[in-house]
Structure to design on (350 residues):
């Protein structure tokens, strides 16, 4: 949650805010899950925020507040604050770890300096004094050597522990990054990650003079399916389609859930013709399977997907490429669905 809302939840009005949130959720028949509570706390406490306005818009449009919708809102509006907090925490831990290592090194340096001074003093004594008590001097040097050895062993142990701790922190930060860019329902990349990847891929393709194709895929008649069988079964269908797209869209391709029942697939260094063959493979595999409802084993029948794609033109922006792919998708929808349409083929025909 944002800092302001965190403050409110730890202040005198915290219980009032929590009750207002629960009342609002109950009034709209929203289950009080952890994600829903966090989203609706933003809506109640900060209705003018981007998240608050989006929830108000969805409610006005009569949208059902499903787990899928909650995941989408959380992926869009919440991860940044969570990511910043977790990175800050990991950064603080790393700073403490480095401070401890610095102190250990400083102690070892001082011990080594003291040892050097002891040796220098012994050397001067031997050079200037006759009848030196060699036994006492050797004993002194042995004690100094043992002290240095102990300090060095302690330093080695501390450095080994720190290396392990830094590796764990690095792994944690990588997991945080993955969580912030992954769609919770499908485990594909989320909208935020897709937008960033498309910009990067377009820039690279234009600089290197390479091909790049973008496809947009949509589940046909999904709203009717959702209304008939319920949102949980709808989520099951989304996960199934995502599994097919994710398998075919493995790296170097980039598969993402663009939103709701819509997906996107980036084809680096591939032409539209090559992408059409892949999309036909996806379309045929999805429609070939007769689905069953997990909870009741009812036959759900087959589902189909429509797709539109466009190949990057010289000097074209990522936004313009997305618009052309989206327009090709709408042609597939208007032409009867369960088909793949290429923006390049549309342009050639025109």
């Amino acid at each position: 949650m944002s800092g302001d809302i965190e403050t409110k939840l730890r202040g005198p009005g915290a219980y009032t805010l929590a009750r207002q949130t629960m009342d609002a959720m109950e009034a709209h028949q929203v289950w009080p899950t952890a994600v829903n509570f966090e989203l609706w706390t933003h809506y109640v406490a900060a209705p003018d925020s981007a998240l608050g306005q989006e929830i108000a818009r969805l409610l006005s449009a009569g949208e059902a507040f499903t787990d899928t919708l909650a995941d989408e809102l959380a992926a869009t509006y919440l991860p940044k604050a969570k990511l910043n907090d977790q990175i800050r925490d990991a950064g603080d831990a790393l700073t403490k770890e480095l401070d401890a290592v610095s102190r250990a090194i400083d102690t070892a340096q001082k011990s080594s300096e003291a040892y050097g001074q002891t040796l220098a003093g012994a050397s001067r004594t031997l050079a200037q004094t006759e009848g030196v008590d060699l036994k006492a001097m050797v004993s002194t040097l042995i004690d100094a050597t043992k002290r240095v050895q102990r300090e060095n062993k302690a330093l080695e142990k501390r450095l080994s522990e720190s290396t392990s701790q830094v590796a764990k922190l690095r792994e944690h930060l990588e997991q945080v990054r993955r969580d912030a860019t992954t769609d919770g329902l499908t485990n594909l990349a989320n909208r935020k990650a897709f937008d960033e990847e498309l910009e990067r891929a377009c820039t690279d393709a234009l600089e290197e003079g390479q091909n790049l194709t973008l496809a947009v895929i949509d589940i046909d008649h999904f709203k009717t399916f959702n209304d008939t069988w319920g949102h949980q079964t709808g989520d099951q269908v989304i996960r199934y389609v995502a599994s097919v797209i994710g398998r075919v869209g493995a790296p170097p391709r980039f598969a993402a859930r663009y939103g709701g029942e819509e997906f996107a697939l980036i084809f680096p260094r591939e032409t539209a013709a090559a992408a059409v063959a892949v999309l036909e493979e996806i379309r045929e595999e999805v429609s070939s399977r007769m689905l069953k409802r997990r909870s009741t084993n009812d036959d759900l029948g087959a589902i189909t997907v429509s797709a539109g794609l466009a190949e990057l033109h010289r000097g074209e922006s990522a936004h313009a490429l997305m618009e052309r792919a989206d327009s090709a998708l709408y042609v597939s929808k208007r032409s009867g669905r369960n088909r793949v349409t290429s923006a390049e083929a549309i342009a050639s025909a025109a």
About this structure: The chain has a mean pLDDT of 81. The longest strand covers residues 212-219.
